[in-house]
UniProtKB/TrEMBL annotation:
Taxonomic placement: Bacteria, Bacillati, Actinomycetota, Actinomycetes, Kitasatosporales
UniProtKB keywords: ATP-binding, Ligase, Nucleotide-binding
Region (Disordered): 505-524
Domain (ATP-grasp) ranges: 532-581
Compositional bias (Pro residues): 510-520
Name under which the protein is recorded: Acetate--CoA ligase family protein
InterPro entries hit by this protein: ATP-grasp, ATP_grasp_subdomain_1, CoA-bd, Ligase_CoA_dom, NAD(P)-bd_dom_sf, Succ_CoA_lig_flav_dom, Succinyl-CoA_synth-like
Coiled-coil features, chain-numbered ranges: none
Keyword hit for Nucleotide-binding: yes
Organism listed in the record: Streptomyces sp. R44
A Gene Ontology molecular function term of the record: acetate-CoA ligase (ADP-forming) activity
Length: 731
């Protein structure tokens, strides 16, 4: 349902308006009146009064025209009455600042009342809504105009982001305070920002993801539309209380799930408001159409398309579609000659600084964040050297060595040579530029003229220019910002923003699973015997085994299974740590001794006598699925065995999985070279490993009663994959 009535209503009524600047009603009313050249504004307060010559009316029934949006800023017990009056008056949208009643149930009933009449509700318990492109300011505080659209569950965080944006010469296109999300939620608001032409970068602070899969589809749609999404969220782990139940519970935290969803949809998960603003400022410069993203491509088109005629970025290519009509998995990572996955090609950055020290530190900061500071090609070196003292050679970083002090225009000349050179994707100017006029006001005009030249050089080259300077809020920096050149006070800010921009450029979003399969018949318990049977029914291979309760039964089973074998105690989550596993048993005497010892140590009443799986050149993996309250089943694979949590080398994705997606997860592990053939060893059967992950993910998706399902270890080898242990955790 359209949110036009939220962002650009033909008329607004503020209920609870006030003439007292200390009250919310004043700010809402004053903000509404600021847009009265575009829309009709009604102010309502049963006690009477006026603001800016506009009288307060006693109630919504007194309005001469229909209020398309009603802003409710009255005590909670009065909210429902106001909403009922608004619906009777024909209102289509309600922004509820205060809480919607005595608790969640009353708020849900309020939302149901509004939506049953075809309306929408923002909040309750929200800070309001702002659209600087339609002169709509229905909130408390100052919201500078700009190109960043923000969706937030925190009002104060939004104010902090706004102030940081203003200091950087940027601001908001739209701001939506979600509040308790009883109707309009994060996905709704983000969808509206994606479709909003004036919003170049989308930012969000979300605590409650609600329908996480729907939100994931929205994030992927934003990337397809060329709208970068920057996300902040909390780091609390839903799994912390269950960490002892399985390795999966310890490794798949709520934060890790969000991180994986962002990676797979092209969004960027950030750590702080400052980091969000730094990245947004750089990305708005890119989206302005004055530069392309820092690439990462070699000998092919840039990772993000160049600007089209109206200054917006063209949408990325649509995903490839298979013969079955489903999105094709992205191409697998390139493999080097030694069988290891090739690292992504890093964007190449040229650095020019006022001193060798600043340039070198800038290069280190960029390299530490995965960016490349390459040797410049011969033509670029010659073009730069022409303006350096002594016309000597130059490297990257370029040391101005006094060229700027000798002639301020050398900043523009040298930077232009770097921007026009063919071997880099972006240029960082670091040091003193922007501060000359502080010490010598007579240089203000010249420094501003050089800033104009820098901005024009970046525009004509179609490459990104980033400036790090020790200056702050000088006229030259204002000129740079007006030209869309990002300016940073610390080099680590610039480097981090460039690294995040590069991530958005290289992102190849996966289509999130559309739905989870319908639940199958629940399993009886999460023990090895039950889970093994479940996973075998989905095609996962296990060694031959029999389940026994006595030593004599164990000996009989061993004669049928054959030696060597393994003995496992049932009913233990961490069998090895509890002394519930004995491997490599070679005869009946050793078997009976292990059985007696295990019974005394663990107290178990049931045991598995299992064939030993011995495969040369095998690798132990852990594979698991955890049910996330917002995102549903989440699949995980990593290096396994008893060191799974120690290594913490894992990859996550929403389940179920396709074989291509499962293979991608395997190759994304830090230790993936062990799978592809390390130091001459044969590669494991990646297709079999991927099929095993798919079987596990499918089984977990069909059994929501299992909030965790794990195979550890999953032994993968050149001839296939076999599960050596499995465990589930019931709701």
């Amino acid at each position: 349902m359209s949110l036009d009535a939220l962002f650009d209503p033909r008329s607004v009524a503020v209920v609870g308006a006030s003439a007292d600047p200390a009250k919310w009603g004043y700010w809402l009313a004053a903000g509404a009146l600021a847009g009265r050249s575009r829309r009709t504004v009604h102010l309502v307060n049963q006690r009477g009064g006026a603001l800016d010559g506009v009288p307060f009316l006693p109630d919504l029934g007194s309005l001469a025209t229909v209020p398309e949006q009603v802003v409710v800023a009255v005590p909670p017990p009065q909210v429902r009455t106001v909403v009922v009056q608004g619906l009777a008056a024909g209102a289509r949208c309600f922004t509820v600042i205060t809480s919607g009643g005595s608790g969640p149930q009353e708020e849900r009933e309020l939302a149901a009342l509004v939506t049953s009449h075809g309306g929408r509700l923002l909040g309750p318990n929200c800070m309001g809504v702002v659209d600087t492109t339609t002169e709509l300011r229905l909130s408390w505080g100052d919201f500078p105009s700009g190109a960043v659209g923000l969706v937030s569950q925190s009002g104060n965080l939004a104010l902090e982001i706004g102030r940081l944006l203003a200091r950087a010469g940027q601001g908001f296109s739209r701001f939506v305070s979600l509040g308790n999300q009883r109707d309009i939620d994060a996905a709704d608001a983000l969808d509206a920002l994606i479709a909003h032409d004036a919003t170049r970068v989308v930012a969000a602070y979300v605590e409650d993801f609600r329908d996480g899969r729907r939100l994931a589809r929205t994030l992927a749609a934003a990337h397809t539309a060329g709208k970068p999404v920057l996300l902040l969220t909390l780091g609390r782990s839903e799994a912390s209380g269950r960490a002892a139940a399985s390795h999966t519970g310890a490794l798949v935290s709520a934060r890790a799930v969000v991180d994986a969803v962002c990676r797979d949809t092209g969004a960027i998960l950030l750590e702080s408001a400052g980091e969000l603003v730094d990245t947004a400022v750089l990305l708005t410069a890119v989206r302005r159409g004055r530069a392309s993203f820092p690439g990462g491509s070699r000998g092919r088109s840039r990772a993000v398309p160049a600007a089209v005629g109206d200054g917006a970025l063209a949408a990325p290519e649509a995903p490839r579609i298979t013969a079955h009509g489903t999105p094709a998995a992205p191409e697998a990572p390139r493999i080097t000659a030694d069988g290891t996955p090739a690292a992504p090609e890093a964007p190449r950055i040229a650095v020019v600084g006022d001193s060798g020290g600043q340039g070198a530190l800038a290069a280190d900061a960029l390299a530490a964040r995965g960016l490349d500071v390459p040797v410049l090609d011969e033509a670029t070196r010659a073009a730069v050297a022409a303006y350096l003292p002594g016309r000597g050679g130059c490297g990257n970083p370029v040391d101005l060595a006094g060229a700027g002090e000798a002639d301020l225009r050398n900043y523009a000349r040298i930077t232009r040579a770097l921007l026009d050179g063919g071997g880099t994707d972006a240029t960082v100017l670091t040091g003193y530029f922007g501060d000359y006029a502080t010490a010598n006001p007579g240089q203000t005009r010249e420094e501003c003229a050089v800033a104009e030249e820098l901005g024009e050089a970046a525009r004509k080259a179609g490459r990104l220019l980033v400036v790090h300077t020790m200056a702050r809020d000088t006229p030259a920096l204002t000129v740079l910002r007006e030209h869309g050149v990002p300016v940073y006070e610390r080099i680590e800010q610039a480097a981090t923003a460039l690294a995040h921009a590069a991530r958005t450029a290289r992102a190849r979003p996966y289509a999130p699973p559309e739905r989870v399969p319908s639940p199958a018949r629940p399993v009886a318990d999460g023990g090895y015997e039950s889970v093994r049977a479940l996973l075998r029914s989905h095609g996962l291979d296990f060694p031959t085994a029999e389940f026994v309760t006595t030593a004599d039964e164990a000996a009989g089973a061993a004669r049928r299974t054959g030696y060597p074998l393994a003995l496992k105690a049932m009913g233990l989550a961490h069998k090895t740590e509890a002394g519930g596993v004995a491997l490599g048993i070679t005869d009946e005497t050793a078997l009976r001794a292990a059985f007696a010892r295990m019974r005394d140590t663990t107290g178990a009443t049931r045991y598995a006598v299992e064939e030993m799986a011995v495969h040369p050149h095998s690798v132990e993996l852990i594979a698991g699925v955890r049910y996330d309250p917002a995102f549903g089943p989440v699949a995980m694979v990593g290096l396994g065995g008893v060191t799974a949590e120690l290594l913490a080398d894992t990859a996550l994705a929403l389940a179920p999985l396709t074989p291509g997606r499962a293979r991608e997860l395997l190759l994304s592990l830090r230790h993936a070279p062990l799978l592809t053939g390390w130091r001459g060893a044969p590669a494991v059967d990646l297709d079999a490993a991927a099929d095993a992950l798919c079987a596990l993910a499918r089984a977990a998706s069909e059994h929501p009663e299992l909030i965790e399902l794990e195979v550890n270890p999953l032994l993968v080898h050149p001839g296939g994959a076999v599960a050596l242990d499995a465990h589930g955790v019931l709701v």
